[in-house]
Design brief:
The complex is a heterodimer of chains A (about 280) and B (about 80).
Chain A: H1 14-20, E1 44-48, E2 51-55, H2 57-77, H3 86-106, H4 115-130, H5 146-167, H6 171-177, H7 186-231, H8 236-279
Antiparallel strand pairs in A: 1-2
Chain B: H1 2-43, H2 48-75
Helix pairs in contact in B: 1-2
The chains are: A mainly alpha (about 280), B mainly alpha (about 80).
């Protein structure tokens, strides 16, 4: 027994631990959270043409978030006035942020047509990420892989379609596969790499980046909250540890707020880059 | 039974090591990106917008590698 042996009472098995609470003082093992915390049991199951549709917590959060965003922008721009109300100026702040910081910087003036799409995308991803630290919700919807994949597929279809429309169905592919001004043998290696990176790697990394960031952040916060619960006990040392662990949870929540915003920003920025690349051929 | 338990422990440990290895390259890369980005902003503060945007772009591309390394042990269990 080490110095910690003083703190530990008789070791308990896992069943007793769930009954009396997995605390260090009870001699229980640390109940480390696993990837299983991202699996939700369906709250209700509906059958549509024989296909079971399961409603889970992320799906409900998705619906709430969508309604919230729609309601906010509806209230903000219902009666647009020259001298804007508070809600309207807040909505305009969000819109001009995406237009000036993302669309105009990356695509240019002719990207203004796509700003409504980018604004919707930015606020959708941001709110879905924000659910991670909102009490009661406390689960980032985007940490379920299906949601980023759905978004990435929409973006993939959009930029492939735009590129084929603006540059021609064959020209679009040859434009990025054969950038001019390189020695001929280079193209043997470059062309397949460029094809792979533009068609397959782009949507894949777009989805994985958002998913993995939210997944990791949620897991990190969970580990420290479970740690606070685990360390809490009758001993002074246990309470000090629990307080430290809880303080880490609070600090990480603040850090996560920054990451959530950054990931929504990067997701929209990369979408704008892909759209811009489809509108103008590489030069 | 003990063989099975041992091998699963070994594999989960390998996942953590794999993530550590996957984080080295992107860590260096992100450091270079932000270091040079800050230097560029210090030299030319008026080009802040363009520099920041390209900095975040490079950051996102480098970070993706580390994140794939983070997810891989969960997927390839």
């Amino acid at each position: 027994m080490s110095a910690f042996g003083v703190l530990l009472s008789a070791p308990a098995d896992s069943e007793t631990c769930t009954e009396i609470g997995s605390h260090l003082g009870n001699g229980c093992q640390f109940p480390a959270p696993t990837a299983a915390i991202f699996d939700w049991a369906p709250l209700a199951t509906y059958h549509l043409f024989g296909v079971p549709i399961e409603v889970t917590k992320p799906a409900i959060l998705l619906a709430i978030g969508t309604v919230l965003i729609l309601a906010f922008f509806f209230v903000a721009f219902r009666k647009p006035a020259l001298v804007p109300s508070r809600t309207q100026s807040l909505g305009e702040l969000g819109y001009t942020f995406v237009r000036d910081q993302i669309s105009r910087e990356v695509i240019g003036k002719d990207g203004d047509k796509y700003v409504p799409f980018l604004v919707s995308l930015f606020f959708f991803v941001w709110v879905m990420n924000l659910f991670s630290i909102i009490p009661g919700a406390q689960f980032p919807v985007t940490s379920r892989f299906a949601f980023p994949v759905g978004l990435a597929l929409v973006i993939w279809v959009l930029y492939m379609f735009l590129g084929m429309k603006k540059q021609g169905p064959i020209k679009f592919f040859t434009n990025f596969m054969f950038p001019p001004g390189l020695p001929k043998p280079i193209y043997v290696i470059l062309a397949p790499i460029e094809l792979l990176s533009n068609v397959i790697v782009r949507p894949f990394t777009l989805a994985v980046r958002l998913f993995a960031n939210m997944f990791a952040g949620h897991l990190l916060i969970t580990i420290f909250s479970v740690g606070a619960w685990y360390l809490a006990g009758p001993q002074v040392l246990g309470w000090i540890g629990a307080t430290g662990s809880f303080a880490m949870t609070v600090a990480l929540s603040g850090f996560e707020m920054f990451i959530q915003f950054l990931q929504a920003f990067i997701f929209t920025l990369l979408t704008a880059v892909y759209i811009g690349g489809s509108l103008h051929a590489e030069h | 039974m003990s063989l099975l338990a041992d091998s699963s422990i070994a594999i989960s440990g390998l996942g953590a090591i794999g993530y550590g290895l996957a984080a080295i390259g992107p860590g260096v890369g992100i450091g270079i990106i932000f270091g040079n980005g800050v230097q560029a902003i210090a030299r030319q503060p008026e080009a802040y917008g363009v520099i920041r945007q390209n900095m975040l772009l490079g950051f996102a591309l480098a970070e993706a590698l580390a994140l794939i390394g983070f997810v891989a042990p969960f997927v390839l269990k």
